[in-house]
Amino acid sequence: MLREKQQQDPTLEKIRQLAETGDDKVSKNGSTHKYVKSSGILYREFSSPRVEFGNRFRQVVVPVDYRDHVLKVAHESILGGHQGSKKTRDKVMSDFTWPGMQADVTRYCQSCDVCQRTLPKGRVTKVPLGSMPLIEEPFQRVAVDLVGPIKPATERGHRYILVLVDYATRYPEAVPMKTIEAESVAEELLGIYSRLGFPKEVLTDQGSQFVSGVMKEVSRLLSIRRLTTTPYHAMCNGLVEKFNGTLKAMLKKMCDERPKDWDRYIDPLLFAYRETPQESTGFSPFELLYGRTVRGPMRILKELWTGESEVSETKTVYQYVLDLQERLEQTCQLAREELKKSRQRYKTYYNKKARVRNMKVGEEGPPPSPH
């Protein structure tokens, strides 16, 4: 069916002609691409020095009749998470392409009814951004926070979410909770650490759960350095606060019709976030942590339509470990370079509408913003 649709689609006429010649097109940034046919199916073969370390990968050329289905899976499905235009576009481009794809993705996301009804209002910026140290080692420092109480509570009694984000990889974890006593929070954190490893530093706010004697003792036993933010200054823990906002927005969109089931959506939405490349690093959190791309909805859809699956080169365990280690080192190095660039770019953009406030001792400050 896909082959016939590709052959009959008038919008793919030029691509069909290019596939006959098989000529490589070289861009100014060093990337190359060409259109080819394999088993009667049209593909775009693409390679770039900054994508997959120069490896060539294939994107299926999608005919008009199939495009809405690709966009729906990438944006609206439970593993899509109603993310923004750029992240949805990156997800689609991992396995598919078509003429005018970027504009189609933007229009689709902007016209999504659920996204429009749950779009957050803008906030006025305050003072210029400061700088945080750049963390290079995965799980050297993690940020932890609690979200809630969330209304309504779920049918299973969950009212809160414990959130953890790694500074180096942006890899998130989230666990629904019924109560947030110090013992319960410590137990859930130990569960997360047992899956991902124990961090060297943990940054939290000064909530009673995080400064309690129980948490101090747990940190001492595990040799974890505890860092706390300034009271009433959530921006100091901006990484996890930003993810909190993203997770709440995704839950709100997915649970619009069943608000008491929000805890059932956390794991699928975490997958959607982890498999999507981050603008700040250029890689997905999953790839930075595990050194490989994950098989997600786009890859599965591509396999179903083409009947083809990617077969990895056969290697010994020893060779696989060596290659994985080298790939992780290269990936993290590229991510650090991109993170430095993006931080400066964000800071410049943010500070355009910010102004410095010089306060004197004894001077009355502005009233706190409502929460």
Automatic annotation (TrEMBL):
A GO molecular function held by the record: nucleic acid binding
Highest taxon above the source species: Eukaryota
Pfam families membership: Integrase_H2C2 (PF17921), rve (PF00665)
Residue ranges of domain Integrase catalytic in the record: 134-293
Gene3D superfamilies assigned: 1.10.340.70, Ribonuclease H-like superfamily/Ribonuclease H
Coiled-coil ranges (or none): 325-352
Keyword Zinc attached: no
Record-level GO BP terms: DNA integration
UniProt keyword list: Coiled coil
PANTHER family registered for this protein in UniProt: INTEGRASE CATALYTIC DOMAIN-CONTAINING PROTEIN (PTHR37984:SF15), PROTEIN CBG26694 (PTHR37984)
Protein name as catalogued: Integrase catalytic domain-containing protein
Native organism taxonomy: Eukaryota, Metazoa, Echinodermata, Eleutherozoa, Echinozoa
